[in-house]
């Protein structure tokens, strides 16, 4: 095997939302900054363009279902019967699937398999006799077990996945962690850093210096955009959010961006005066590192939520917003309360750099063996 081929990494990334893709992209981009010759083999159904925009270079994309996560009817509602149906069809992993993917990993000269909670990567790594690294702030086995009383079939899936997750060669947890466990490395929140200055982004959005910018995000879900027309009279504010359209539209003080716009999400976060959004890992991490107020909308029925909300309350300047208010129209007084909160610089460094520093020596050692 050549020296260059030994520098390749296979990455199995859950496509559930875009938070796992964002976290993995932050780590991989930081790793490539330290080791520019690394080639990435990305196994996921998350959009290839997302990784390109996030700074990942020298990459090969394998459009593969690597995970199920939860089926959802909206950003806030899971379809558990459909989730069970999909898990029944996907688990346990078929030997021919694991064999085919492990052959690709070996043929591509990958010396490491990185998994952002996609357990298929751990199974493939074992078959390919390659070390695996699990990066997580929660694992599916714990979340599925939380619903097993109502949906007993989830108990079997949880047990199967628990065994797989425990077989990872290395285990990294990223704050805020839902279930602290023995790990080889624990780091602060992992978020993608901005690429442009606040001034440059606001200029590109045609937002004047006298206007305050509020970013409203549902983690890439554009099926049920929150109503904002009742705030049209607020000429001192500009609201930026995603829509299902294909072009940027300006409607009064509302700026609608297509899901795949040329504006990089971390740049929008750092250009904003406040963010309103669903609590999810990547949104939390990006807002945390920007140090701006967060109007957070939590899902009461989701097992991942309590640790995330605790982190938000303890380490961020934030205001809770109910899902009902988000769906029917956020009251103007909530907007004013949110914008009145001061900025709060992060107290922990971005965990992406620490993970890259941890993994880079592993790759260097593989070159000497």
List its salient traits.
alpha/beta; 2 domains; Rossmann fold; 18% strand; seven-stranded parallel β-sheet; 39% helix; 369 residues; seven-stranded mixed β-sheet
Let me know the number of strands: 14
* SSE topology string: EHEHEHHEHEHHEEHEEEEHEHEHEHHH
What's the structural domain tally?
2
CATH class of the largest domain: Alpha Beta
Tell me the fraction of residues in β-strands, as a range. 15-25%
The CATH superfamily name of the largest domain is Glycogen Phosphorylase B
Question: Would you write up a description of this structure?
Answer:
The protein is α/β, with parallel strands linked by helices and 369 residues long. The protein contains 14 helices and 14 strands. The strands form 2 sheets. Strands 3-2-1-4-5-6-7 form a 7-stranded parallel beta sheet, sandwiched between helices. A 7-stranded mixed beta sheet has the order 10-11-9-8-12-13-14, with helices on both faces. α1 crosses α14 (351-368), α4 (95-107) packs across α5 and α8 crosses α9. The model is unreliable at 1-5 (pLDDT under 50).
Short structural description:
This protein has 369 residues and is α/β, with parallel strands linked by helices. The chain has two domains: 205 residues, Rossmann fold, CATH 3.40.50.2000; 143 residues, Rossmann fold (3-Layer(aba) Sandwich). It has 14 helices and 14 strands.
């Amino acid at each position: 095997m050549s020296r260059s081929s030994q520098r390749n990494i296979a990455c199995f990334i859950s496509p559930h939302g875009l938070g796992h893709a964002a976290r993995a992209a932050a780590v991989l981009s930081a790793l490539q900054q330290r080791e520019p010759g690394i080639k990435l083999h990305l196994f996921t159904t998350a959009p290839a363009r997302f990784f390109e925009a996030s700074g990942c270079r020298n990459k090969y994309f394998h459009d593969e279902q690597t995970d199920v996560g939860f089926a959802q009817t909206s950003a806030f509602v899971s379809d558990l019967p459909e989730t069970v149906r999909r898990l029944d069809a996907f688990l346990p992993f078929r030997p021919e699937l694991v064999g085919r993917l492990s052959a690709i990993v070996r043929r591509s000269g990958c010396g490491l398999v990185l998994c952002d909670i996609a357990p298929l990567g751990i199974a493939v790594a074992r078959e390919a006799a390659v070390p695996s690294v699990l990066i997580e702030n929660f694992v599916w086995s714990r979340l599925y077990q939380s619903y097993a009383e109502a949906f007993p079939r989830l108990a079997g899936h949880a047990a199967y996945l628990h065994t797989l997750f425990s077989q990872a060669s290395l285990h990294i947890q990223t704050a805020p962690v839902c279930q602290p466990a023995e790990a080889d490395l624990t780091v602060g929140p992992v978020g993608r850093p901005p690429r442009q200055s606040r001034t440059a982004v606001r200029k590109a959005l045609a937002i004047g210096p006298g206007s305050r910018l509020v970013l409203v995000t549902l983690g890439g879900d554009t099926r049920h955009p929150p109503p904002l027309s009742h705030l049209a009279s607020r000429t001192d504010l500009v609201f930026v959010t995603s829509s299902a359209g294909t072009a940027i539209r300006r409607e009064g003080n509302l700026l609608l961006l297509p899901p795949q716009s040329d504006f990089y999400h971390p740049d929008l976060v750092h250009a904003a005066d406040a963010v309103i959004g669903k609590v999810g890992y990547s949104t939390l991490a990006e807002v945390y590192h920007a140090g701006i107020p967060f109007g957070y909308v939590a899902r009461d029925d989701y097992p991942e939520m309590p640790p995330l909300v605790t982190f938000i309350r303890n380490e961020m300047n934030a205001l809770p917003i109910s899902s009902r208010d988000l769906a029917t129209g956020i009251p103007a007084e909530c907007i004013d309360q949110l914008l009145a909160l001061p900025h709060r610089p992060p107290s922990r460094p971005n965990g992406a750099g620490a993970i890259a520093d941890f993994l880079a020596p592993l790759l260097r050692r593989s070159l000497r063996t």
